[in-house]
Amino acid sequence: MITEMVEKMLLGDRQALARLITLVERDSREVPDIMKSVYPHIGKAFTVGVTGPPGGGKSTLVGRLAGSARQDERDVGIIAVDPTSPFSGGAILGDRIRMQQHYLDEGVFIRSMATRGSHGGLPRTASGVVKLLDAAGKDFVLVETVGVGQTEIDIMEAADTTVVVLVPEGGDSIQTMKAGLMEIADIFVVNKADRPGADYMLAEVEGMLSQRPDSWWKVPVVATEAVNDKGIEELYRHIKAHEKALGDGGHLDRNRSRQRKLDLLRTIEYRIMSQIVSQIENDKDLARYLERVETGEIDPYSAASQILTNHNLIDAWLKQVRGS
Amino acid sequence: MITEMVEKMLLGDRQALARLITLVERDSREVPDIMKSVYPHIGKAFTVGVTGPPGGGKSTLVGRLAGSARQDERDVGIIAVDPTSPFSGGAILGDRIRMQQHYLDEGVFIRSMATRGSHGGLPRTASGVVKLLDAAGKDFVLVETVGVGQTEIDIMEAADTTVVVLVPEGGDSIQTMKAGLMEIADIFVVNKADRPGADYMLAEVEGMLSQRPDSWWKVPVVATEAVNDKGIEELYRHIKAHEKALGDGGHLDRNRSRQRKLDLLRTIEYRIMSQIVSQIENDKDLARYLERVETGEIDPYSAASQILTNHNLIDAWLKQVRGS
Lengths: 324, 324
Description:
Two copies of one chain form a homodimer. By secondary structure, the first copy, chain A, is an alpha/beta fold.
């Protein structure tokens, strides 16, 4: 059934794609099979992460970039993991309506995702969805996310180009907004550039960038007014330039290799941990440990040591892992 | 040596405390021993998480709250995991100077932490540092963090009271800023309440809160001007009220039990994964898998399945875990 669904998706069936994404999102037991059959078909998509503080107009910018990419005859996928994005349903009606054109375009596939998966669940899931979009022929994937947390960093790891979106603000926020975002940006955008303070902010970001040592890529700073469709072409050109520079320097291949390695380690981690947790939850002896820890009779660290040296538990768990 | 250091810390030695925190932060192999010896001495600290978008004046607010708690004759610990916090060294000189009073106060212990630990490392580490501060007699611990990512959610899990700090902003950001923060707030603060739009924002947050079903705790919304020391007393009173309500309703005990259970599961998870990763890195057979995945010869998901069903690997790894 999975094979059939993947076949359909590869032929362009949007419903099959949507269903597969749902399976990956829900972390169903079919995920390894899905990924195995999808893997031979990926590697063509270029992934652009768009991040920054809330209220920066990222969704509008993503919508505009999708437009540029469509004009450039690319198939576009959009993933919104930002809880405030109109794509993911977090924002006001006006924004949603502004995005509607893309909902009707067959060449654009939009998917929103919950920001808070179970413990550590999301990043892996988001990069799984990128792979599905890739295999489905979307060769330009935009991932919109918010902030500088670990979740976002993990998602950005999967992006080929990271665009950091700032807005001119009153005084103190300028300095602070940049702090966590400086290192991850391949391109800086100052959006809402018609607002007061935009020139100051552009100069300041450029000043900070000029202090960095030379590298194979000079991070550009682009002024945009996404709502008025200004500066988008220039931004898209910079993204294409970064794409080319990544390819020419062999960086893209290296990034992809690293990504595959991370996928392996995280998959192992995830599968082992699901097994361990279900073992602990279903084993009476181990449930007793959890109870004693909950009541405070034993501290969690001593309990962990005892559980890890308990042969029965590990053997039982081992059987499961080997069998699965 | 650990026992000695812990003894010293329990007697109030700040240097011993600082050293133990460093060990926990660096994830040294002594961590389980440290935690085992610290665990009997914890449970007295009340932990307040202060979170919200960058530029909201969280650090100034945390500094003021530390002042209130000191006047209330509590010992204060401050952990800054916000890269933009002046406590953690991210911000401008003025802010740092404003904080300096606390650096000189023996009753306040301040510790900054890196926001980006290794994969999944930080939250566990931050809650470990909270435990050290608790054992060292800090009965009021403030944790300052930024944003709504998974890292922050994990840290907030460890907080007894979560204070979400917003600022009046121009139009669109109001709606968006709240989206990810609504569910985790025990207390809302609108800081910089002298700015235009503050009344509107207060009304709007209260409007959103009024739509929620009644609960044992009615989330208050407090207007503050941290820089001018306004509204801090009221905020501190609300924190104390939440502390009391948590205690009266038995919520505090339940939270602590849940926290201990999480500590156990995460410790197991962490110890198993460190072993697995070091096994993979040191085993030649397995290094071969990593190589094949890096070059793309085999997909990560198939490789994970093969590694997990490979008896030699698991047996070798098992020996290590049991022995440790």
